[in-house]
Amino acid sequence: MVLLGYLRCIFSARLGKQVLKRMKSNIKKGKNEQQVAAAAVKPELDPKDDFQQISTASVKPELALSIKPKVDPKDDFRGKIITAKWIWFNGSFQQNVLLKIDKDGKIEDIFKEDHELFTIEEGKIVDLGEMALLPGFVNAHSHAFHRELRGLSQIGNEGADNFWKWRQNMYKLVEDIDYEKLKKICIDTFSEMLSVGITTVGEFHYVHHSNKASSDGFFDLDMAVIEAACEVGIRLVLIETLYMRAGFSQSEINPEQWRFSSATVEQFIERVEDLREKLKNNDLVTLALAVHSLRAVPIPEAIKLYKYARQNNLPLHLHLEEQPAELDDCRLVNEGKDPAEVLLQNILENGETEEAREGSPLAKPQIEAFGFASVTIDNSLITAVHCTHTKRSNLDEFVKRKINVCICPCTEGYLGDGIPNLSEFDNICLGTDCNNRIAMFEEMRW
């Protein structure tokens, strides 16, 4: 875990106790419901008070005192031991916990104050005071360049219009994008992520080319994203994305999509191999793969990439069932099957059967007949993004196969897509997607 950033959560514990005590004393036996309600919502302090300026009086406001850190949070903590009022440890916020930081800024050890290492000289212990420290967030799905579209959706129109009109705005954005522009956008986006506690981002990257007339401009924009992440200092999983056609019934991309084109699967895999070689000594950047969507990649090519991903133990992502139109178009050319059913029955089953016959360690005998394949494979390397309109029966099959579902509630709400039909058993992760608002707590709140 790298101490690249932490969230400063302010806890006004003493103020909270005073408010609770006041509420209890006001709710006396015999009061009617209106009196009880009034007592329960009466604040201890006037909410109109301005706590930005700390009083110079001898008795300072409680709230102002509680948010004042003992040290500047921008201090260099390398080679020191730090503590704070609350630290996330063993699955909960705990007090009297210390973090030992090595010379490179990595957390070397975590222990309680009664640990033997607590005897270390006090000068090396930095107390952050009334703060809460927790591990950095993992943003599992991002399109960094979409941040430039803030304010350009179709909010106010019906949900069916929002996404597709927003998509046209996205095409306009990439018309004149080049290496330096994309790098600058990514630096801005990744910096904002880091400032709100995101320390790892999965960048679902498909804007590959800056110049279709030159070999130097072929897949060159991938390095712009990588350089931006390295300069900012955020951990990056570059989700290199295969994109081959404009829709289910089309065999080619549209003119405005040329920057996304991956040519053939073989050329795309060659590019991935080249990136893997370049990144083998990079501690900040790793690779994953993506089928952009079943709308953008034909089934045979999706199967080829899936097999390559499994053979090389690489995660594989795909956009899935974000829009009703995607399901309608898919059914027209796939014998009535939804994209999720194509994924399960056509891509995964065909990609797994050969492996199973060869005795793959990931293939396990199926104890219960699920109706999809003769063997059950651990598909935990696969992440389906959105699943906004996915049937519950297909999501249940995802659970059995350990397929992950990445939801992006702020984006899905912002564009009027809807919210997926989730259960407590789904393997869920979160992403900021279009980055209209970068706030993991807000993603959780939805």
UniProtKB/TrEMBL annotation:
GO terms for molecular function: deaminase activity; metal ion binding. PANTHER family: AMIDOHYDROLASE-RELATED DOMAIN-CONTAINING PROTEIN, GUANINE DEAMINASE. It comes from the Eukaryota. Residues 133-446 form the Amidohydrolase-related domain. The lineage of its organism: Eukaryota, Metazoa, Ecdysozoa, Nematoda, Chromadorea. The keyword Transferase does not apply. This is Amidohydrolase-related domain-containing protein. Keywords: Hydrolase, Metal-binding, Zinc. One of its GO terms (cellular component) is cytosol. It comes from Meloidogyne floridensis. Pfam families: Amidohydro_1 (PF01979). Its cofactor is Zn(2+).
